[in-house]
Write a structure and sequence with these properties.
Shape: globular
CATH architecture: Alpha-Beta Barrel
Structural class: alpha/beta
Number of strands: 13
Strand content: 15-25%
Helix content: 25-40%
Number of domains: 1
Order of helices and strands: EHEHHEHEEHEEHHEHHHHEHEEEE
Largest sheet: 11 strands, mixed
Radius of gyration: 20 Å
């Protein structure tokens, strides 16, 4: 396994506090060195800030300039990427500026809140996120800009995976995101029983989680000035079979992920993370990014794995819908119902879910979806079975869905 990222959370103020940014960069360099000395490859270091509408005191028109300023600071402080957090339901004007900010910057990520416990499901925010996805699909000819935006439902601060990461405190913090699908592949490769594989996976996650946490605690000079938020031990993949979560599902005994039985396998893997003993944060679950996983990409290309399947697995998994390649002519009105389904799941099941959807210009369902990007596997454009909503769900109101009561 690897460490996908060490994410440093801060409120950088605006105008930007350059000393705070330098301090973040210095800490991340020290943290990277500590983990690499312990034998963990660290792929990236990242910054996540207070949500930009609050950072800018509501003056969201300044977002493109802020994104450019942050992007300029990243190489100076030795950090790979930054997230400026999500547009917020309380600031309805904050959504429309995101496409311009993405066009104006590189290496800067954003989100958009669709639903949370305070506001419920906001149809206005869902429609705004759908428009963002459609608009930024044309920023580059290959539709790649949507890698930098996710629609969020019931996602709390402190999750280190991008684009969902944001901060909610003046006190800095850091958290670890793993790339650990290979642990699941290994655990179930030669096991006679499901329970043998599950025990091995729990043991492996616990061993690494506790080692990562021990190093994290040693990195904190003063607990009053920096907080360790925990580890998001989502089984994130890399696009080869040895690091494929789809491969892990098939090692459990499913002939092809997407066939019946896959939901149970997703639940088994997610529950193993829950059972493991380490400081949890973020999603900490089954991560199913279609284009970042060789087997998921292959099954999607074959038609065995559909968007509806991925949505179904979101009921028991950690993250939701990620890097889903869609036809380029998909409209915002067709995207909105999918985002609504995801938001309803997140609130009804009281779990964080995100959607990172990627309409690809000039492509239709069944066409090749190939990118020159080390973290993506080749696949095909997936069919979205969706049509525009009608009243009352076509409105702009907000409504609450109560989490299911148990017992």
């Amino acid at each position: 396994m690897k460490i996908r990222s060490i994410t440093y959370f801060l409120n950088p103020k605006y105008p930007l506090d350059e000393n705070a940014l330098l301090k973040a960069g210095e800490f991340l360099a020290r943290a990277r060195a500590a983990y690499e000395s312990a034998g963990y490859e660290v792929q990236m270091t990242r910054l996540a800030t207070t949500p930009f509408p609050k950072l800018l005191n509501g003056d969201v028109k300044k977002l493109p300039r802020l994104a450019q300023e942050i992007a300029k600071q990243l190489p100076r402080i030795g950090v790979d990427y930054a997230s400026l957090g999500p547009a917020l339901i309380e600031f309805p004007e904050s959504y429309a500026i995101i496409p311009e900010a993405i066009s104006a910057s590189e290496g800067v990520f954003f989100g958009g809140v669709m639903a949370d416990k305070q506001n419920g499901i906001s149809l206005q925010a869902i429609n705004a996120c759908a428009r963002i996805i459609q608009q930024i699909s044309t920023v580059t000819p290959d539709g790649f800009a949507n890698l930098r935006f996710a629609a969020l439902a019931n996602v709390q601060a402190g999750a280190p995976f991008f684009p969902a990461a944001y901060h909610d405190s003046d006190m800095p913090a850091f958290a670890i995101a793993t790339e650990s699908a290979d642990l699941a592949v290994s655990a179930f490769s030669e096991q006679r029983t499901m329970d043998d594989g599950r025990r091995e996976l729990i043991s492996s996650i616990t061993k690494h989680g506790q080692a990562i946490a021990h190093i994290a605690q040693a990195l904190i000079p003063d607990p009053q000035s920096l907080n360790f938020g925990g580890i998001d031990f989502s089984l994130a993949p890399f696009p080869d079979d040895a690091h494929s979560l789809g491969n892990a599902v098939e090692k459990i005994g499913i002939p092809k992920i997407g066939l019946h039985g896959s939901l149970a396998a997703a639940a088994i893997l997610t529950e193993a993370i829950d059972r493991a003993d380490f400081p949890h944060t973020g999603f900490s679950g089954f991560m199913q990014p279609i284009l970042e996983d060789s087997i998921l990409a292959q099954r999607a290309a074959e038609g065995t794995l559909t968007i509806k399947d991925a949505l179904l697995y979101s009921t028991v998994c950690g993250t939701g819908l990620d890097t889903i390649p869609l036809p380029g002519d998909t409209t915002a009105e067709q995207i909105a119902p999918l985002l609504l389904d995801l938001s309803a799941l997140a609130l009804r099941l009281d779990k964080p879910l995100t959607a990172r959807l990627m309409p690809i210009p000039n492509k239709k369902a069944g066409d090749d979806a190939n990118f020159e990007f080390a973290f993506f596997a080749n696949s095909k454009i997936m069919k979205l079975e969706s049509e525009p909503l009608s009243a009352p769900l076509a409105g702009s109101e907000s409504f609450h869905i109560q989490a299911r009561q148990r017992g």
